Amino acid sequence: MEFNKCPQCGSFFSNEGKTCPNCAQKDNTKIQKLENYLQNNFVPDTLEELSVNTGIPTKDLSRFINESKEFSNLNGIISHL
Ligand SMILES: [Zn+2]
């Protein structure tokens, strides 16, 4: 069996995916929060503002934006970093 090392928490896991099931679940919660926010609000000018408004750390936000096409329209605010 092949194990992958989770880039988020460093633990090993055997299922498919980039992160371990624990972190994947945490990511899903954050992504839902972000989706929900974007449905009801304008995209702020900066990643920091988006972070404050959603409660999601900027490093997670930039990861989601880089990894998910769904949030590719947010790429502009990353350029402020
Ligand atoms: Zn993990």
User: How large is the share of residues in beta strands?
Assistant: under 5%
Distance between the amino and carboxyl termini: 40 Å
Sheet with most strands: strand arrangement: 1-2
Reading the helices and strands in chain order gives EEHHHH
Shape: elongated
Structure commentary:
With 81 residues, the chain is mainly alpha-helical. It has a domain at 23-78. The chain is built from four helices and two strands; from the N terminus they run E-E-H-H-H-H. The protein has helices spanning 21-40, 47-54, 58-67, 75-78; strands at residues 4-5, 12-13. Strands 1-2 form a two-stranded antiparallel sheet. The model has no long low-confidence stretch (mean pLDDT 90). Zinc ion (ZN) binds next to helix 1.
Describe this protein with a few key phrases.
mainly alpha; elongated; 81 residues; single chain; two-stranded antiparallel ribbon
Topology summary:
Layout: E1 4-5, E2 12-13, H1 21-40, H2 47-54, H3 58-67, H4 75-78
Antiparallel strand pairs: 1-2
This protein binds zinc ion.
The site of zinc ion has 8 residues, from helix 1.
Quick summary:
This protein is mainly α and 81 residues long. Helices cover 52% and strands 5% of the residues.
